[in-house]
Design goal:
The complex is a heterodimer of chains A (978) and B (361). With 978 residues, chain A is of the alpha/beta class. Helix content of chain A is 60%, strand content 8%. Classes of the chains: A alpha/beta (978), B alpha/beta (361). The interface between A and B is large, with 89 and 89 residues.
Chain lengths: 978, 361
């Protein structure tokens, strides 16, 4: 029998170029839908485009027509640069052809292919070689399956298994195969790493499935993310990375590199064991499944089959404790007639023995619950089977545990209450304790919670803590349940448990509540009062709570400070550890004073004092709440701490009288306030002017106390600089004195800071003006700044005609600076942005006068880039520069450089002006005019202009064409011809 | 299903079999899915976070990813485009997948979506062997249409009008770029204004789209900016203009393209009539421009010019273009034609003018 098979070749249509992947050749019998599908998904990947690939990669997937695509992907030539050109060659196998090959891809691969209607016999290699050059029409093929496909299949499977066993131990192979089948049975897609061994493993796993399952599992040896939804079994390089990249549409299970994890229980392991035991006859195992139409992929088919066919003696009891299995009767297998209740009883008794022996209960319970569930699933019995067994009191608790484990999480209240009744009859012991915790948790999770039933169980303090921890982390009634648990604990005099639940569960829950839904005030009072005797817990609660919760805690703390000083001190000490920052809430008023009176450590009350300071400064300056601090004589050690704290607290936005009071008190008492005080003053100096005035007296005191020390110098310099930046004029005598006390160097530095206020100083504060002017003469740079300011003020007052004279008179000052800096500063000061262009040009020309700049244009030329950058925002016509050819050359070069580096920036620069490039175009025009007038035209400038024009031409596209530049060009060209 | 040993046969006599109890959940194989795109979840996440999408459209190999890569070199991309070995050589976007590249666009959240050219080509029914398109084939556009804030249509004129590429095999849509992009515009407009496929209708999908678009009102046009980019402009110097129709039949082109002197809008007006008409019909704001390709030096390790001409401006126009209330492009064109007529320049709307004057050498 022969079958018609179509071929199709999808590859990049432009060899050596990139023209996109398309169907370049196909057989006439390839259906149009299949052809579209093939060229829609050529399944190329970056890996295939980049990495070398020897041989080909196989895929097997269904096509829209019902045929199956056996696709070979290989690399042939390059498509663009060094990227590989991938060829996807497909054989479209009709379904009956696949069936004739025992539904096995590998049998189909071993078939004979020939051109349709001829007796040719082409190998796969020949077909692939033909595909590399195929264009247009390809011949239809006929497929002749092997004579005995089943035998061929058995040989292929056997050899594949043998080869697999050469690369891994049977145990590893068993684990990996079980993992693959388990994942597939859970409806997951399976991804393996890209290695020859994994391809063999995938092939064997696929081939060992029954035919029905095989035809539901498309697979590929190299997964392309764009076609991932097609396949369920695949290999890929870096599978973990691919699966977590977000590229794949579904969840793919990735076989870990180090091999499969511990076995899961679903019957898959028994199938794998059977396959491996069969060795070369593995196909017979599959054939048996096929004969009885057992699906490996469908949930319970395999489990039932394994149990019924007797493939294993452990099913279902492989997770059953040995002691239970021993009682089942027949050879270790559970007899089908065993009653469900009986199994529960056996498991519960076994559990009692093991938990009673001191084993770790959760693990033990989990194993037994799993066994029970497995039994229930296998035997199709209802989950709740407890009532069927008459259980003694000592076993009852364990049976409840088991039942709880096998009940669904949404079990109804009636069932839980029935279990609670049973548990109430159980004997005390670890089993009952465990069951109580679980049952109470479930009862409390009901809506509404079954509190009456919980009370009936009489849980201990540790039980209550465990219950609170096991509760879900959110829920509408969680707060009420926790409060109830706290109340239960207090009623049973389990204070430690009550505190534990309150601090670990309830307070964090309240802390997470929104401000507009605060906890009940009575509840807050009662819980915080409970915590007062546990300083750490109270402090922790205070650090977490906000709004009304915090207010209640603060009020309680103040109250405690007056009534129980020792408790308050302990809480204050704990607060210093838990809550170094206290929010500025109105409730903090008076807390600091109360704690200080109670003798609390300064670390404890300072945060409250600072919070109170913020409140006072932010709202009411007449508030004298800080007065007690300034009157209080602080111990020296405390004062040092306060200073240190203030130095770090000064960054806060709101501060003022409170800080002043604190600082004054602390500074007075601190033994060595030097560095810290200077730090505080520096921070004060960076504040607004209004508050500077309030600090003046204190700063003068500080400076006087620090004397001529470096700290004192720093305080004076900071203060004088701050006044230069923000202080009100005229300065007070105290401030002038502070300036006078500065060292000479310090004065020069401060004079530099005052330079920008020259005009104001001259008008409003002559004493300070004369001081800083004198100080400035000690440094040429600063002196230059002052002179420039004076020139600027004269220019501003209309003395423009004297500009050149002024500049010339100050030449010496200019030359002492670097030309660029001087030029830039002069531009900044002398070229007001809103002045008319003519005035700008006048100023610029005055500054560009050759007599003005002694090193002439040569120095300026080298410094010009900086100067141009300074001019750019002022939109100055660069024509002003074109008075000297050297400067023009430099200008052109710089503009050309800007042009070349960032074309669009330059274009933007051009368009921001008068719609055209004001600098370069003016330069071009001036050059062209000069050329026409027969002026000497330096070759360097000509070359640069040519280069800039070429650059512009190469860059010019569409509507962004600087026409004026090109209009100027012919004139230059004419000059060249001349 | 039959088993050699039925479970109920072993039940003790007189006792009801326990099969009446609820059966455990049966694990089943998920049904076949509609095609999904690699990176779809990432795209949906961007949409959920309020990003505006900017789509690059064009057939395979016209340089969509390359344009983005060139743009990346002058703009601060948050994510770099995947490339091989160095940051220069751009890999093509794979079929069935798309990549998202977030960019800074002022205060707005913007992300460029770069899809595979093969997918765009296969959305055009006449590029399919079956000639039929289904809604699932165009699903990608339905995913992006509602959040689109800009569209770049990339056309490679060399492949549209020039000689076949060296070693070119089969039809990769080169000569149909205009029609493919016009169809993409139509599809986008359909999806944008609530187009839904009706599987019960006797009309095939593409006819439903056609009919749906015809029902739309004039004001229901694509309101985001559309930039048509003539890519690889540095390779267009000698590409002949296509023959134009006249009373005497097809007239052979009188000259070749000269991109640095051509007016892009006029070029499209005269020689890309299908695309121009589609833009006029389906879009309000559109613009044409040339852009150079990212030319690599011979060893392929670095770009000869890291800021190819035309790229930055074209894509920035997309990002910066706003003002849905401003008059549409065709209104400006009408105004310009009127001005040209008054200034005795009306002739340039009758035939493509010669490129602007400057020395070709």
């Amino acid at each position: 029998m022969r079958y018609l098979v179509a071929q199709g070749v999808v590859t990049d249509a432009g060899k050596g170029e990139s023209a996109g992947y398309a169907l370049v050749a196909a057989s006439a019998s390839l259906s149009p839908q299949d052809a579209d599908e093939l060229q829609s998904r050529p399944e190329t990947t970056n890996h295939l485009h980049e990495a070398p690939l020897a041989g080909h990669l196989l895929s097997f997937r269904p096509l829209p027509s019902g045929a199956w695509a056996l696709m070979f992907r290989f690399v042939e030539g390059k498509r663009r640069g060094t990227y590989n050109r991938v060829v996807a060659y497909t054989l479209a196998l009709p379904r009956d052809a696949v069936a004739a090959c025992a539904d096995d891809t590998f049998v189909a691969l071993a078939s004979r292919f020939g051109s349709w209607g001829t007796d040719g016999d082409a190998s796969i290699a020949e077909l692939l070689a033909n595909a590399t050059t195929a264009v247009g029409r390809l011949a239809d093929l006929d497929l002749s399956p092997p004579v005995e496909p089943a035998r061929k299949r058995s040989v292929l499977m056997g050899s594949r298994l043998t080869r697999l066993l050469e690369t891994a131990s049977p145990e590893e192979l068993e684990r990996d195969l079980t993992w693959i089948y388990d994942s597939l049975r859970n409806g997951e897609r399976v991804l393996l790493g890209d290695s020859a061994r994994n391809r063999w493993l995938m092939g064997f796993a696929w081939a060992a499935l029954p035919a029905g399952d095989r035809m539901r599992l498309p697979w590929t040896e190299h997964l392309a993310p764009g076609a991932a939804f097609v396949y369920r079994l695949a290999c890929a390089p870096n599978p973990e990375e691919l699966a977590s990249s977000g590229q794949l549409p579904d969840r793919w299970s990735v076989l870990p590199v180090e091999g499969a994890p511990a076995l899961r229980l679903s019957g898959a392991r028994d199938l794998v064991t059977k396959l491996l035991q069969a060795g070369k006859d593995a196909h017979e195992v599959t054939a048996e499944l096929e004969r009885f139409q057992v699906s490996v992929l469908d949930g319970d088919d395999l489990v039932r089959w394994v149990a019924s066919a007797g493939w294993t003696e452990e099913v279902p009891g492989q997770s059953f404790p040995g002691a239970v299995l021993a009682r089942t009767g027949t050879g270790g297998r559970l007899h089908p007639g065993v009653q469900a209740g009986e199994v529960v009883r056996w498991l519960a008794e076994d559990l009692r023995v093991r938990i009673g022996n001191g084993n770790h209960p959760p693990t033990e319970v989990e194993g037994s619950v799993r066994a029970l569930r497995e039994y229930q699933q296998l035997r199709l019995v209802a989950p709740a089977t407890l009532g069927e067994a008459e259980l003694p009191p000592d076993t009852l608790a364990y049976a409840v545990l088991l039942s709880l484990g096998s009940l669904s999480s949404a079990a109804d209240g009636a069932e839980l209450k029935r279990l609670a009744e049973l548990l109430a009859r159980a004997s005390p012991g670890p089993g009952r304790a465990n069951a109580t915790v679980q049952l109470v948790t479930r009862l409390l999770a009901l809506s509404p919670p079954a509190l009456e039933t919980v009370l009936g169980l009489e849980p201990s303090g540790s039980d209550l803590v465990a219950i609170a921890e096991a509760l879900p982390q959110s829920g509408p009634a969680l707060s009420a349940i926790l409060l109830h648990l706290v109340g239960l604990a207090r009623r049973r005099n389990e204070t430690e448990a009550a505190v534990n639940i309150a601090s670990r569960q309830l307070v964090p829950l309240w802390a997470g509540l929104p401000d507009d839904a605060p906890p009940n005030s009575e509840a807050l009072d009662s819980v915080l009062e409970l915590l007062v005797d546990s300083p750490d817990e109270f402090a922790s609660a205070m650090a977490q709570l906000r709004g009304p919760g915090f207010a209640t805690a603060a009020a309680l703390l103040a109250k405690t400070a007056w009534s129980h000083a020792a408790s308050a001190r302990a809480i204050a000490a704990a607060l210093a550890r838990h809550a170094p920052d206290v929010p500025a809430h109105p409730s903090v008023r008076g807390v600091a004073a109360a704690l200080a009176e109670a003798g609390a450590a300064v670390e404890g009350w300072i945060p409250f004092a600072l919070a109170e300071a913020k409140l006072a400064d932010g709202k009411d300056r007449s508030d004298d709440g800080g007065r007690w601090i300034s009157k209080k004589s602080l111990p020296p050690a405390t004062a040092a701490k306060v200073l240190e704290r203030l130095a770090t607290d000064m960054d806060r936005p709101v501060w003022g009288d409170w800080h002043l009071a604190l600082f004054r008190a602390a500074f007075r008492a601190a033994p060595e306030p030097g560095a810290r005080a200077a730090e505080v003053v520096e921070r004060v100096a960076s504040r607004e002017g209004e508050q500077l005035a309030r600090w003046e007296e204190v700063v003068c005191d500080v400076a006087a106390r620090l004397g001529a020390t470096p700290a004192g110098e720093s305080v004076r310099a900071s203060w004088s600089t701050a006044l230069a930046l923000r202080g009100a004029l005229p300065l007070s005598d105290r401030s002038l004195q502070l300036f006078d006390e500065l060292s000479e160097q310090g004065k020069v530095k401060v004079a530099g800071a005052w330079a920008h206020r020259t005009n104001k100083l001259m008008k409003e504060d002559q004493p300070m003006w004369s001081r800083v002017r004198n100080a400035a003469s000690g440094n040429p740079d600063v002196a230059f700044q002052y002179e420039l300011q004076e020139i600027a003020s004269q220019v501003e007052s209309g003395e423009l005609g004297r500009l050149e004279a002024l500049l010339t008179a100050n030449r010496q000052s200019f030359f002492t600076e670097s030309p660029t800096r001087a030029f830039t500063s002069a531009c900044d000061l002398l070229l007001p942005r809103d002045d008319p262009p003519a005035r700008k040009a006048l100023v610029l020309r005055a500054m560009m006068d050759p007599g003005m700049w002694p090193t002439s244009t040569l120095a300026l030329r080298d410094e010009l880039p900086g100067a141009l950058r300074a001019l750019a925002p002022r939109r100055l016509a660069a024509a002003a520069f074109v008075r000297s050819w050297e400067v023009s050359v430099a200008a052109a070069r710089e503009l050309g450089r800007i042009w070349r580096r960032d074309f669009w920036v330059t274009v933007g620069f051009m368009l921001r002006g008068r719609g055209r490039h004001p600098a370069l175009l003016d330069g071009f025009k001036a050059a062209a005019t000069a050329a026409e007038e027969g002026k000497p035209f330096p070759p360097a400038l000509r070359d640069l202009l040519e280069q800039a024009l070429d650059e512009a031409k190469g860059r010019t596209l569409g509507s962004t064409f600087p026409r004026q530049a090109f209009r100027a060009r012919p004139r230059i060209m004419n000059w060249r011809r001349r | 299903m039959s088993f050699p040993l039925d479970d109920s046969q072993d039940a003790p006599a007189g006792q009801a079999p326990e099969t009446a109890a609820p059966a455990p959940p049966r694990l089943s194989v998920p049904p076949p899915q509609a095609p999904t795109y690699a990176g779809e979840r990432i795209l949906l996440d961007y949409k959920d976070q309020g990003y505006g999408l900017y789509l690059m459209a064009g057939i395979g190999g016209v340089g969509k990813t390359q344009l983005l890569d060139a743009y990346q070199k002058s703009r601060p991309f948050l994510t770099s485009i995947r490339s091989k070995q160095s940051d220069i050589r751009v890999a093509s976007t794979l079929s069935g997948s798309f990549a998202c590249y977030p960019v800074r666009a002022g205060n707005r959240k913007a992300v460029f979506v770069d899809a595979s050219g093969e997918d765009f080509r296969m959305m055009y029914p006449h590029q399919r062997i079956s000639g039929q398109l289904s809604d699932t084939d165009a699903r990608f556009l339905s995913l992006v249409a509602d959040s689109l804030q800009g569209l770049a249509l990339v056309v490679e004129l060399r492949r549209l009008w020039g000689e076949p590429l060296p070693g070119e095999m089969g039809d990769s849509g080169n000569r149909h770029q205009e029609r493919i992009l016009a169809w993409i515009l139509e599809l986008l407009r359909w999806f944008r204004f609530g187009g839904e496929y009706n599987p019960d209708s006797a009309l095939p999908f593409q006819d439903q789209v056609d009919a749906g678009v015809q029902r739309l009102r004039r004001r229901q046009r694509l309101d985001f900016p559309i930039q048509v980019i003539f890519s690889k402009a540095d390779h267009l110097q000698s590409v002949p203009l296509p023959p134009s129709a006249s009373l005497f039949g097809q007239v052979a082109p009188s000259r070749t393209l000269f991109p640095m002197g051509e007016h892009p809008l006029l070029l499209a007006y005269h020689h890309l009539p299908v695309l121009y008409a589609a833009l006029k019909e389906h879009a309000r704001h559109f613009r044409f421009d040339f852009a150079h390709s990212l030319v690599l030096d011979p060893d392929g390790q670095s770009a000869v010019d890291e800021t190819p001409c035309g790229v930055n401006y074209s894509l920035s126009w997309l990002l910066e273009r706003s003002g849905r209330l401003t008059p549409g492009t065709d209104a400006w064109v009408r105004l310009q034609r009127r001005i040209d007529r008054l200034c005795f320049r009306g002739n340039r709307w009758r035939r493509l003018p010669e490129p602007r004057e400057f020395d070709h050498g």
